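[audit] Reproducing an earlier prediction to check determinism. Same input, same settings, fresh worker. If the tokens differ from the archived copy the diff job will pick it up downstream; this log only records the rerun itself.
[audit] input (469 residues):
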Amino acid sequence: PPGGVSQLTPDYLAPSRGGAAGCDLCADGAAARRCLTCGADLCLFCCQAHRRQKKTASHAVTELENIKDCSQAGKTLFCPSHPTEELRLFCEQCDQPVCRDCVVDRHRQHPYDFTSNVIHRHGDALRELLKSTQQHMGTLEDVLGQIDDMGSAVRSRAEAVATEICLFASGYVKAIEVHRDQLLKQLEDLKVQKENLLHLQKAQLQQLLLDMRTGVGFTERLLTSGSDLEILITKGVVASRLAKLNSVAYNTHPSVDDGIQFSPQKRAGQCCGYEVFGAILNKVVDPARCTLHGEDLHSARQHQLTGFTLLCNDTTGERMGRGGEAVQVTITHKDKRDCAVKPTVCDNGDGTYHISYSPEEPGLYAVCIYVKGQHVQGSPFTLMVKNKFCEHQGVFHCCTFCSSGGQKAARCACGGTMPGGYQGCGHGHKGHPGCPHWSCCGQVKESSECLGGPPSDTSQRSLLRTVAL
């Protein structure tokens, strides 16, 4: 407390909890009896002296063992500030027992009463608090019991889940091992297949080479050692044999490649009831079978984002189904060597690549698409970039007379005029196209690009006036 240890409330029940109390007179021996008149605890020696004195000879003394719990109940308590004064009063303002000297000293003008008069009120309040606290104790004991039960349930559940995890892990490991064995077998089968094809091609080419060497050796000996008549006689057979050997078609490249890859992220379906990943990829992209797709493949607009799609296929013409290929795109102006468009290649991850670009200059461009350094199908090709889309500056009207409200000076790009000094077109008059059209360029299609060149100042004012009207 703020006043230090001395301000702590004394615990008068502590001696009964701490074992044998000491003698109140000599403070050396252990208390064995209590004077019920004085309220002092006495050792055996002091108890005999207490009975021999005249003032205390008539006091009632009893064994401490006969007193319930050997507590301090009934023992006189003295004031800590005035050791000779007994605590018989209670200060209501300070909420503490006091003696007579305290009332006239530090507790002057404080409301007070005898302890016997206030004990019932304070005792009842303390009993109410005790009752409420006991109820909370019961609730806390129930909650603690529930917590213990829940702890047991958590431990049991954790053990059950741990068993499930172990079963799952062991099953998953077994599934992965089975999938591993399947992949290794698939890889071995693929290797044997490729090796067999290479052996077959090798045997065929070796036989063809042997036949050619035999034919070439015979022909060389015939030409060097044979007579003219012998050459002429065997010429037909030899020429036929060499022509047949030359006509044999053979592949100048190995019939298979080393395109074997492993993709750990690719889903491989179910194995032993578990979903597994990892697949062997033996598809190899063939640039000659890759195709280009898009509506704006050969045409584009200046300053307008345009694009097309590259579809990569393997040697059998099937879609690759995965990305990661080395795609290179060049777009170069045919007339301006220093003018090139920087395209953007987006790998969609499914075997398709989106190429987008925005040309700065109009004209004819050469577009080259490379996969693994080789042209794809349809590459190179030409690209025509037109001027940026020209919006109509006039009005889409049926005639100038109607759109201008009958103004004589209003003109139309269709070139039609009307009698009476009208410089614009009118229904059924000379030059009218016979249908609605644009006043700025004369085109009859409403959703079209304006083809009219920059008009003169006079015609521009007339067209603007027509638009305004």
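[audit] rerun output stored. Observation attached for the diff report: The mean pLDDT is 85.
[audit] end
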